[in-house]
Amino acid sequence: MARAVTLGKPLATEQPLAQRSLWRDAARRLLRNRLAVVGLVVVLTMVVLAVFAGQIAPHDPNAQDCATGALRGSSSDHPLGTDAVCRDVLSRLLFGARVSLSVGILTQVVVLLIALPIGAIAALSTRLVDNLLMRITDLTYAFPDLLLIIILSRVLADVAVPGGSLTVIILAISLVGWVTIARLVRAQMLSLREREYVMAAEALGASRWRIAVTHLLPNSLGPVIVALSFAVPQAIFAEAALSFIGIGVAAPQATWGGMVDAGYAAVYSVPMLVVYPAVAIALTMMAFTFIGDGLRDALDPRAARRI
Predict the structure, then answer these.
(1) CA angle at residue 107 from 104 to 109, to 5 degrees?
(2) I want to staple 103 with a disulfide (CB 3.0 to 4.6 A). Which of 16, 218, 239, 293 is the partner?
(3) What is the CATH T-level fold of the domain 25-56+78-303, as seen in this structure?
(4) What local confidence, expressed as pLDDT, does residue 8 receive?
(5) CA 48 to CA 284: how far, in whole Å?
(6) C-alpha separations of 292 from 44, 236, 247, 289 in Å
């Protein structure tokens, strides 16, 4: 005889199947990517050094130790030596990390605040609005990035901007870097609008903007996060380039690009003044690139079998 089926609460010994979200699976795949983990460790180390630079640095980054002298090598008091104006190189490296990481991360926050609404409006509005926003995007994209950043930084420098030259650099890079993210958001939302669950929500009477917030935006974030992670090293390099040519963060604030510029005059006699900040820039950019590669593979469901 067939057993009677009893409906009711499951037995205490029965365990429900684990439900893993896309983001949890992505995090698991990311942590299995060795290069991405190396990048995360390097970035977290840089962040800790930047946050606690005031406690770790042996000297004030702008203090001049005239007793030790200029262009001195490594010593117990100055582990990485002194620069051309008797300042401690290690202290300036640590405080320079604050500027580079602030520019790299805060720039992407501003870029997201600009690009997300523009891309969403272009994807969800009429053809006229879409064409208008995309032509503005194309016009911005047509200019060479570094040239446009230099022009905007000089224009914004004449405006009373809270935060001084650092805010000017962040805004200048952000006003140039939003176009790629805006295009990506628009393309993702246009693609997702054709999915079955979106058409089902439309059939049930959900408004266009409710669908955008509930369905389109969350499902568009994966590629956007990957693009932002790749844009961080580009922003760091742009800040270093501006500081190197003398129109970046105002002196005497320590920046890695400014240190390369200051050490270039003595590059043949004391090459390490250029090597130290250049290595710091390269390591940070490489770490964010590793993270971007790892995120790209982790957020791609087709990569699950490859990792």
Answers:
(1) 115
(2) 239
(3) MetI-like fold (1.10.3720)
(4) 46
(5) 13
(6) 15, 15, 29, 5
